[in-house]
Amino acid sequence: MASRSRFLTKASSLALIAWTLATASAAQADSAKVDGAKVDALIGRMTLDEKISFLHGHDDPQHLAGGGYIPGVPRLNIPPLRLADGPAGVRTSRTATAFPAPVALTATFSPDLAKAWGAAVASEALARDQQVLLAPMTNNVRVPTAGRNFETFGEDPLLAARLVGASVKGLQDGGVIATVKHFAANNQETDRKTIDVQVDERTLREIEFPPFQAAVEAGVGAVMCAYNKVGGVAACENPFLLDKVLRQEWGFDGFVMSDWGATHSAAPALKAGLDMEMPRGKFLGEALKAAATKGEVKEADIDRSVRRILIQMDKIGLLADATARPAEDEVQRKAHADLALDIALEGAVLLKNDGILPLAPAVLKQAVVVGPTAKRALFGGGGSAEVKPTALDNPYDALSADAGAALVFAEGLRLEGESIPAAVLSSDIGSFTGAMTIEKSQSSAWEGWITAPETGDYELMLQFTPVGGLALAEADRGMADVELDGKRIIEGGRLFGGSRLIKTSDGLLNQGQIVRLEAGVRHRLKLTVKASAVEPLRLRLAWTTPVLRRRLLAEAAAAAKAAPAAIVFAHVEGTEGEDNRTLALPYRQDELIEAVAAANPNTVVVLNTGAPVLMPWIDRVKAVLQMWYPGQRGGQATADLLAGRANPSGRLPVTFPATDNQTAVAQPERSPGVDGRQTYSEGVRVGYRWYDAEGVKPLFPFGHGLSYTRFDYSGLKVTPAADGLDVVFTLRNAGPWDGAEVAQVYVDGPTTPPEGLVFAPRILAGFERVTLRAGESREIRVKVARRELSYWSPRAKAWRLPPGSRHVRVGGSSRDLPLVLEVKSAP
Ligand code: BGC
User: pTM for the complete prediction?
Assistant: First the structure.
C-alpha cells in the first residue's frame, strides 16, 4: 500500500539521523567529561579584559553572519564561539535545511522526530562554524495572534516539555550548545522590549516553566533571558528567574545570555545571574570593567560567569586541542531534507474531511489550484527563525507532477499588486513613475498626489531592496516611509515585521497598507527615503485596485467552476517583531475561498499559517488541511497528503477558536496590555483549559486531527503508583489505511479543589504517538508522572498532590475522550 512505503522511507531517514547522532556523540564522548581544573587554570591566566571579552558579543571578523560572536583568547588556544539562530534551522548568510516551523514539529507529538531534528541541526550548525544554536524557543502560546507562535511549542506545557527536552538532547548530543529561550513570559511581540508581565507564581510554574525545566534536565548549555519584565523586574536581571528557579532549584550549570538588546545594567544584571550580553557590550563591556575597577563588582563574580561559559565550551570539545569541523556531503544533505519532509508530513493536521481526501487520481488530474502560495511556498515564518533553504519545493509543481501535467492555476490574489500607472500620480516637482533607485547616502523625498479611478479599498504598497540582512547595522540600512493625506501609512525597512515574507517576483521586499481612496479626489502622497550607507536602494510604489481584485476573484471562480475539485491555498504570515491584529485570514482570502466554494462544492483548503485562523467558510468547503509553515520540502509533503501517498497524523498543539473574542486574552489588560503592563489574570486557564473552563466550543479543539483511517480505543486500566499513574488501554486501527494516531491521556482537575484554587477541567497528562497497520491492535502504556497530577501550592510554595480521586480520560483529542476511569491519585 502506498502509505506503507512512506513509513519505510521515514524509517530510513530516521536511521540515518540516528547514525549521525551516534557518530557525533562518540566524537564528543571524551569532551563531555568536563575538566573543571583546566577551566580554572585558563581563567587564572586571563587578564580582566580577556575575561570580560566572554561576557558580551563582538563583531565577527570573518562575517560568518550568525547571530553573535565571542572572540575567545588565541594566546590561550581558546577558539571563538559563534552563535546562530535558530528554531527552524541554522540561520547564517549561507543556506541550510529549512525545517518545518516548530509548531509543525510540535504537531507531530513525536519526541523522536524532535531529537532527530536536533541532531540534524547540530551537524549543520557545526559545519557552518556555529557552536551555539539559539533554539529551542518555548514560550507558551498564550496569545493566539502572537507573531512568534509558529516558532514555539504550542499551548500545552507537557507537550512542549517533551518536545523541547528531546530537541535539546538531539542538539547537545550533536555537539552544539543549545539555547532555550526566552526565559520567561515573552508571550507576545507587542511592546516585547518594555512590557511588564504581571503573573502569579503558580501560573509561571504550571504553564510557562515546564519546557524550560525540561531543557535544563536534558542538559541545555545556555538559557536566553527575555526582553520583557516579569513582576516589575527585567527578565535579564531578575534574581527570581535567573538564580532562584533556574540555578538553585533546577540546578542549571550553563550560562545565561541576554536576548539581543535585553540587558539593562552591568552589576545588577551580573549579580542576578546574567553571564553574557548580546549582541554587543553596552553594559557587560567597558561599564562592567569600570564597575570592577571601582570595586562595585567582584572579580570573582566575573570569573564565575566566564567559568560557566568555558565549561560549556569544554563540554562540546572546544577546549580540546584539535576540533575538526564536520564536513557536509550530499548523503547528509539528502537525509536532512528527508527529515524535513517527514516532519512536514507527520505534523500536518487534517482538520476537516467530508470524504473528498485523499483526492482520487481522476479528480486530481483535472483539479484547479488557486492562491499565490501554491506556487510561491510560504515555508517558514519571519524574523530570527528565517532560514535560507538549500532547495525549495512548491505545492503546485508537486501536485502537477502527480497529475502528470501542469494543473490549471488561478492566482486569486496578487500579493505584489501591480505598478501604479504614471497617469494617476502627479506632482508640482516633476513627474514620478512610482519607481526609483536611490544611490548610497543620497536621501530624498517625493511629494505629490494620487488620484484613484474608482472609490474603494486599495492596497498601497512600498517595494524596496531587502535590508542588508544580518550583517548590516541599523544605521547603515535604507529606510523609507509613505504618508497618505498627512498620515504615515507605511514604515519600510524594519529588520523584522512590516513587510511580507514573500518577496516580489523581482526580489524586493513588499509592504502594503489598505486605504480608502475616493474616485477623482487628489489624495496627498509623500514618499521619504533615507538612503543606505552601503548599498543603492531600489524602490517602487505599487497597488492592488478593486478592479484587479474583482478580476482575479472572477478568474478563480470561473476556473473552479470548470473543474471537478478546487484546491485553494490560503496563508497568514507570522513574524517576530509584530503580532497579528486578528485571527482572520488577511488580504481578503475569506472572500476568495467563498467565491471558489460557491463555484465548486468540492473545495479543499490548504492552510499555511503558524497559528489558528478563523474559518467563516468552514461549512461550505469539503476539507481543510493545515500544513503550517512546512519547511523546504513542504510542497512535496502537501501533495503526498492530498494524493494519499501519506496519511495525515498531526494533531493540533493549539486550540482553534471560533472567533477572536472567544480566546482567554480578549481583554486588553491581558493582551496587549494597558499602560505598559499586562496581567495574566486568566491564570492557569491557558489554551484549551480556557475553552473547557468557559464551556465554549472552539472551532477545532487542542489535540484534534483526522486521518484517512479510524482508531478505536478500549480496555482502559489505570493503576496508581508512587510515581504517578500507569495507564493501559488498547488501540486498534479500525480503518482501511495504515496510519498513526496520537493517543492522549487527560486528567480532570481534583473533585474538591484545595486551597480555594481554580483548576482547569482537564489537562494533558501523557500521550503516545502510535503507528498501526490497517486492522492492527496494540496495547498502549502511558505513564502519567506524579508532577502532572500535582499543582503548585502558593501556600506551601511547593508542588502538592491534591487529595481525593481523579478522572482519567483517554482518546484522540481533548474533546474526544471515549474512555474514562475514576482513580485515587496515589496508592
Ligand atoms: C530574538 C531572539 C534571537 C536573537 C538573535 C532576537 O531578536 O528575540 O530569539 O535569537 O534576536 O537573532
Answer: 0.95
